[in-house]
Write a sequence for this structure.
């Protein structure tokens, strides 16, 4: 079979490779765009009630090391730390359990109870944002299910807005004004984390 349009075999092969390469690049570009759009929606859902927030930062642990924070927000209730978990399957965990179990079909795995790590992060932030209330939540995306119920300080991503509702701009600013000094100290202390996670996953 002769190549069409008067092309040589080499020219035709190069054209085919070029078309395939463009199609592949288009696929990658579309996939990247979809991932960024999904991530933007996730960030908006988490931070909708915040007057300000930081994402993917390191906070000193007081012992020469650092803790990674997925999100830390300034809200009407003070500073809130968000530990994101994006895992697939049924999660079985409890406040007194050392490890939580993930069941995804026939696959079974465990990961460390994230509550203890959250408590450590809260303590580190409190040491910096003196006299500022500090809370924390472990937030799971909709791909996780909790058949036995949610452990303490664990919420689903769609419930974050109800936990920390959005106020009007003026009302929110009045509510957070007393927390601004502590928030400023925190912003001046943290540093960017090299462990950037657009969709944090934490399963061992």
């Amino acid at each position: 079979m002769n190549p069409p349009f008067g092309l040589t075999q080499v020219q035709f092969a190069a054209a085919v490779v070029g078309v395939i390469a463009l199609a592949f690049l288009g696929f990658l570009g579309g996939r990247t765009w979809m991932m960024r759009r999904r991530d933007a929606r996730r960030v908006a859902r988490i931070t909708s009630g915040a007057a300000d927030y930081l994402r993917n930062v390191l906070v000193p642990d007081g012992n020469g090391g650092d803790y990674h924070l997925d999100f830390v927000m300034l809200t009407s209730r003070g500073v809130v730390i968000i530990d994101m978990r994006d895992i697939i399957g049924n999660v079985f965990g409890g406040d007194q359990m050392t490890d939580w179990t993930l069941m995804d079909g026939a696959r079974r795995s465990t990961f460390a109870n994230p509550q203890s790590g959250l408590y450590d992060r809260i303590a580190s932030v409190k040491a910096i944002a003196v006299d500022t209330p500090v809370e924390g939540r472990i937030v799971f995306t909709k791909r996780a299910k909790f058949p036995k119920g949610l452990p303490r300080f664990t919420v689903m991503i769609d419930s974050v807005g109800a936990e920390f509702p959005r106020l009007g701009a003026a009302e929110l600013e009045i509510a957070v004004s007393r927390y601004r000094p502590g928030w400023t100290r925190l912003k001046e202390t943290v540093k960017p984390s090299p462990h950037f996670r657009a969709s944090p996953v934490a399963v061992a």
Observations:
- Residues 48-192 form a domain with the Trna Endonuclease; Chain: A, domain 1 fold (CATH 3.40.1350).
- Residues 131 and 146 are 35 Å apart (CA to CA).
- The radius of gyration is 23 Å.
- Confidence is low (pLDDT under 50) at residues 198-204.
